[in-house]
Amino acid sequence: VQLVESGGGLVQPGGSLRLSCAASGFTFSAYGMNWYRQAPGKERELVAGISNGGGSRNYADSVKGRFTISRDNAKNTVYLQMNSLKSEDTAVYYCNAKRLSRMYWGQGTQVTVSS
Question: Nearest 5°: phi and psi at 77?
Fold first, then answer.
């Protein structure tokens, strides 16, 4: 099983980034997918989630209206479009796959929002 995140980097406040997570080794379309993040000195928090078919999405209050989660089951990939980025969005972002008691994690990608 592999979850490989990409798309992180340094961006100015107000800017945008799109994170991708490419999955392999499991039946991607059967799993709910999530993005978590962890800032230095803080606990890992759920940012956004999407159901296996893509029909249901949920977001942390702190990112509602700015971030959009989506998935392409044909490409085994989940995305996180991040707009209007703020300094407080700086964190390592992790891709997560979950189905019943099974859960997989990616290695994370750093997002830094700074001028």
Answer: -135, 140
